[in-house]
Amino acid sequence: MLELHCHTTCSDGVLTPEALVALAKQRGVRALAITDHDTMAGWDRAIAAAGETLEIVPGLELSTVHNDRSLHILGFYPNRAVLAKPLQDRIAGRHRRAQAMVAKLAKLGCPIQLPDLPDDAAPGRPHIAAALVAAGYVKTQQAAFNHWLGERGPAYVPYEPLSAVDGIQMLLNCGAVPVWAHPYLFRGGTVATVLPELVAAGLMGVEVYHPHHSPSDIRHLEAACDRDGLLMTGGSDYHGPTKEPSRGYVNLNGLGLSLDLLPPLKQAAAELKQRCGAAG
Questions:
Q1: Percent of the chain predicted with pLDDT > 70
Q2: SS3 letters across 221-251
Q3: CA–CA distance, 42 with 109 (Å, rounded to integer)
């Protein structure tokens, strides 16, 4: 009944915040985190749609780099006013990155038109992949990633650099609980070597339960969290219904996670905000 990793049209999700909330209610979700990439834009719409029957957990998925590879950090319960300015810079960087990839595709003979997005929305490669499909250059978004947009692809442009260490500190400075998203998808080192580095930087939790984590992965992460005193979170990483289900895709609430994961996260957020207030 718990979902702590979901995306909307405010970043690279398929469903609007309102539609995601409606589906969450339909599928029996009791607490739903809105964790769009580098933006908080979907929170208010989700909260308004949720009413009193669904708890919205405010969050985001921060795009950072570690060992020259993409590493995502979930941040839960941030102080919105404090986080707004650094996120504006990240969103502006995402728009510049998207335009740079569009320019590369044009030089490769594949001009596309990106969809109009609000200023506080966060464009990403799925938007560009969808535009390539719409223009008829490929049949599927996965093909767009395979041919052009993957990290080794000719149209790929990396994020404007924000180190994972700096990203964790950014989240801590605004009272957000930083959690390493889907560790076993990271390609810049092993979990065994990278996790201690992130913990030393202030990481407070790990996304243990994720569709791409095997039972063995989950056992290793649970043991690491027990050993290091880290919070455990999880979610389907839901981006919406798709005609192209990839390996590991599950429906909303497909992991059947217990609400018992939420109180420790809330407590950690409350204690962090107390420390931030005392420091201020």
A1: 96
A2: HHHHHHHHCCEEEECCCECCCCCCCCCCCCC
A3: 35
Tokens of 148: 């052009």
Euclidean distance between CA atoms 29 and 128, whole angstroms:
31
3 state SS for 146-191: HHHHCCCCCCCCCCCCCEHHHHHHHHHHCCCEEEECCHHHCCCCCH
Distances (CA, A) of 167 to 37, 69, 76, 78, 233: 13, 14, 13, 13, 19
Type and span of the H or E element at 217: helix 215-228
Residue type at position 123: P
pTM as predicted: 0.90
Tokens 């690279």 correspond to what residue? 12
**pLDDT tens-place string over residues 11-67:** 888 899 999 999 999 999 999 999 999 999 999 999 999 998 899 999 999 999 999
Residue 202 CB neighbour total at 10 angstroms: 14
